[in-house]
Amino acid sequence: MLVLGDAHASDSDRCDTLLELYRTLEPDRVLQLGDLERYDLPAPTWFIAGNNEEFDVIEALRAGDDLETTSNVHLLASTAATVDGLRVGGLSGNFAPTKYDLSRDELTGERRRHFTHEDVERAAALEDIDIFLTHEAPNGLLSYGYDPGCEYIDDLLEAISPDLCLVGHHHRHREAEIAGTRVVSLAPAWERYYTLDPETLALEGHEHDLSSDN
C-alpha cells in the first residue's frame, strides 16, 4: 500500500510529482495525509482534508455528493473505511481554538479547514481502528522549541487506541510511541513516499528523485 504525506498539488510541479508517483509505482490502494489539492487520481485514494484544499469539493465529499471533477478519492472525515483488510479512520482539518466549540455548519469559507468538537466527538466513537490519519500532531511527536501538538489528538489516541497513527501537515519525518500507539509524522510527497505492509503495519520510507525545486 502506498502512503503519502502532504501533496500541495495546486502547485504544478508538485502535482506532476504526485502523478508521477502514481504512474511509476502503480499502487492498488493509497492513503494520503491531507493538503491533497488534486481530486482526480489514477488509483483509489483514502485521504483526510488538510488546511489547504478546495473546500467546496471537500464539503461535497463530506456530504457524499458525486462530482464530475473527482475520481478515485474517498474522504475520511471522522469516518472509517476498510482498506486492504485494515480499518482506517481519519480526522479531517486542523485546529483553531476560536472555532473548535462551533458547530460544523457555522464554519464558512476558508474556515471550513478546521475541525470542531463535533468532528472530534464523532471520531472518538470510531471502533476497531487499525490506522488513524490526522493532519494535526499529538503532543510528544514534534518540537520547534515548543511542542506543536494538539490535546484533542492526544484524546483521540487514548479513545481509539489505533495500532498506527499517521500525521501530515508538518512536512518532516518523526516517529514516537504515544499512549501505546506508534505515531509517524510523514515527510511531504515531493520528498519521500512510504509503503505499508497491511499484514504487519510495517511502514517504510523511500527517497525519490522526483522532487520539485520549488
From TrEMBL:
Organism: Natrinema versiforme
GO MF annotations in UniProt: hydrolase activity
Protein origin, superkingdom: Archaea
Transmembrane stretches, start-end: none
InterPro entries recorded: Calcineurin-like_PHP (IPR004843), Metallo-depent_PP-like (IPR029052)
Pfam families the UniProt entry points to: Metallophos
Residue span(s) of domain Calcineurin-like phosphoesterase: 2-172
The name this protein goes by in its record: Metallophosphoesterase
